[in-house]
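User: I'm writing a tutorial on reading structure tokens. Could you give me a worked example: one chain, its sequence, then its tokens, then a sentence or two explaining what the tokens reveal?
Assistant: Sure. Here is the example chain.
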Amino acid sequence: MRILLVEDDPKIASFILKGLKAEGFAVDHAADGEQGLDLALTEPYDAAVVDVMLPKLGGLELIKTMRAEKVKTPIIVLSAKGAVEDRVKGLQTGADDYLAKPFAFSELLARLQALIRRSTDAVEPIRLSFADLSMNLITREVFRGEAPIELQPLEFALLEYLLRNAGRVVSKTMIMEHVWDYHFDPQTNVVESRIYKLREKVDKAFPVKLIHTVRGVGYVVKASA
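And here are its predicted structure tokens:
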């Protein structure tokens, strides 16, 4: 899942970035409204977190412009103003939710997950599975059959993305944009090296291989001996 964070306060931005990345999200951060709007209009996001008081372009004006441009990304507004009229104004501008500062990260995370579920009109699964590979998104446990597999946070996020697209080829660009928080550089081998390490844990000890390379295109999860 890829999130846009538009927040000018360095401490708050760092707090949210660390929390979301620890949960396996890819996050793009903009420190002012103009940069945030440029990203929102040109990049695909599963959700956005937007502060109200921003330099160069205010958060509410940013949201109004997004909606005028038919950008449907779910948006949570962050604001130090928690009065009813402020929340109403934010929602009327086009935001989907409103969270007053200070806030607990667990609440922001829960609201983001709820927004993403509603936007896809689907119930967020607790478990992802393919063949004998299973992943619990709550406990973050991964198994091949009965054998537990220990994954680092980035490996977990990469496997989650592959499983969510099981049977579908995903390109290196798609992986970079949804698992990492920067754009694809054709000169880097970061995707190949992470896929290699993931295969070492998920496939090496098992006769049926699940993570496959489609040369010149990307990767796909499918069953193959």
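What the tokens reveal: The helical segments are 10-22, 33-42, 59-68, 84-93, 105-119, 153-164, 172-179, 190-202. The first strand starts at residue 2 and ends at 6.
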